[in-house]
UniProtKB/TrEMBL annotation:
Organism listed in the record: Candidatus Thiodictyon syntrophicum
Function text: Antitoxin component of a type II toxin-antitoxin (TA) system.
Protein name (Swiss-Prot/TrEMBL): Antitoxin
InterPro entries hit by this protein: Antitoxin_Phd/YefM (IPR006442), phD-YefM_TA_antitoxins (IPR051416), YefM-like_sf (IPR036165)
Family the UniProt entry places it in: Belongs to the phD/YefM antitoxin family.
PANTHER family: ANTITOXIN VAPB49-RELATED-RELATED, PREVENT-HOST-DEATH FAMILY PROTEIN
């Protein structure tokens, strides 16, 4: 797998093209900002928080059999236990 090299720009160019560089990073690219040709900082995207999962959010929306907690038939238990 080939990984693209980061884009390196000097500070003046970074100030001039900041919006474009931010779009590049948001699209998965990497930007290194340099001073006099020496890398100084890396521009990275902020990790977006994952949506919170709410327990019970689907309560009452999915059908469930009334006997879901009943013991399994012996044949089915034997199959699970390899008999």
């Amino acid at each position: 797998m080939h990984t693209a090299l980061p884009t390196q720009v000097n500070i003046h160019e970074a100030k001039t093209r900041l919006s474009q560089l931010i779009e590049q990073v948001e699209a998965g690219g990497e930007v290194v900002i340099a001073r006099a040709g020496s890398p100084v900082v890396r521009l990275v995207a902020v990790a977006q928080p994952r949506p919170r999962r709410v327990l019970g959010a689907l309560a009452g929306h999915l059908p469930s059999p009334g006997d879901y907690n009943a013991p399994l038939p012996d044949e089915l238990l034997d199959a699970f236990e390899g008999h």
